[in-house]
Amino acid sequence: MPFHDILGQEDAKRLLQNALRKETVSHAYLFSGPSGSGQMKTALMFAQALFCTKCKDDACGECLECRKVEHGNHPDLTLLKPDGASIKIDQIRELQRVFTYRSEGVNPKVYVIDEADKMTVQAANSLLKFLEEPPAPAVGILISENSRALLPTIQSRTQRISFSPLDLEMMLQALTSEGVPVPLARCAASLTSGLDGCRELLVQNWFAEIRNLVLQLAKESLGKGSTAVATVGQKLFKTGLGEHLDILFSMFHLWFKDMLYFLYRKHESIVFIDQLDFISRHARQRSTEQWVSYMEFAADSKRKLRFNANAQLCLEQFLIRLES
C-alpha cells in the first residue's frame, strides 16, 4: 500500500518520503497528534517503505518484504502497545532483547510503540538509553496523542512528526463511499480525528444505539414533565450501554451545538442532519446562552466521569439540569 493511500496528513508523508529519498532517516520519530488520525497506518507504511526492495521512497506493496509487513509477520518489525493501563518496563526489556539479534535484511529493524505516553517512568527511562544506542541499527516510531506526557528527554531525542485531525468533508466522502449511512458517518466523523477512529466507532453495535438513545433523551428533556430520567434507568444501564457514557455526553454536546448552528444559519455544519426538521422547530425554544450552558453541562459531566464519578448518578444529574 503506497503513501498516497493514506488520506490527508500531507506534511507528515512529505517529511517521511524526503527522509527515505535522501537517506536521512532518523533513529527515532515521535508521531504526535489526535488518536485515530492515521499515525499507526503511517508508521506501518513507513516501515514497509524502509523494507521495500523495489521502491526508494515508498512501498510497492508487492515484494516479499512489503507482503510480510501487510501480513503482520515481518521478523524485523516489532509492535508494542500498553499491557493493560500502561507500557511496563518488562515490555521495554523484551524489546531490547529482540534487538540484540541482527536484522535479517540489509535494512534497520523497526519498532513502533503505540500510546507511548502510557509508559511507566521506569519503562520510559529504560527506553531512553535504547533510543540513543540500540544494539542493532534501528528506527523507532513512538505514537502519542498526548506527547507532553512523555519525558522531555525522550521528546528531545526524537524527530516530531505532527498529525492533524482529518478534514471532515474528506472523511464523510470516504465513509459514504464505503456505504456508511450519512447520519452515522456525520456523527462518527464529528467525534473522531481521522478515518481509523471513525471506522473503529462504526463497527461497534452500540454506536448507533447510543445515537438513537441520545436523540430520544434530548427530545424528551425538552418537553414538560419529562420522563428522560426514567428512560435512562431502563434503557442504558440494563443493556450495557452505560459503559459508553463518554460518547453519549459527546453526542449531547454535538446536539446542543447543532441548535446553535441552526440559530446562526450554519445548516451545513449540523451533525444530526436527519433531525433538521425537529431542530428547526425547537432551536428557538431556548436562548443562545441556554444552549451554550447545556454544552457546558455535557462537558462537565464528561469531566466527572474521568474522575470516576458514579456513572448513573452522573447522567441523571445531567438530565435533571437540562429539565430545570
TrEMBL record:
Keywords: Nucleotidyltransferase, Transferase
Gene3D superfamilies xrefs: P-loop containing nucleotide triphosphate hydrolases (3.40.50.300)
Database matches in PANTHER family: DNA POLYMERASE III SUBUNIT DELTA, REPLICATION FACTOR C / DNA POLYMERASE III GAMMA-TAU SUBUNIT
Known EC number: 2.7.7.7
Protein name stated in the entry: DNA polymerase III subunit delta
NCBIfam families: holB (TIGR00678)
Xref: Pfam families: DNA_pol3_delta2
One Gene Ontology biological process: DNA-templated DNA replication
Root EC class: transferase
Protein origin, superkingdom: Bacteria
GO function terms (MF aspect): 3'-5' exonuclease activity; DNA-directed DNA polymerase activity
Stretches of the chain forming a coiled coil according to its record: none
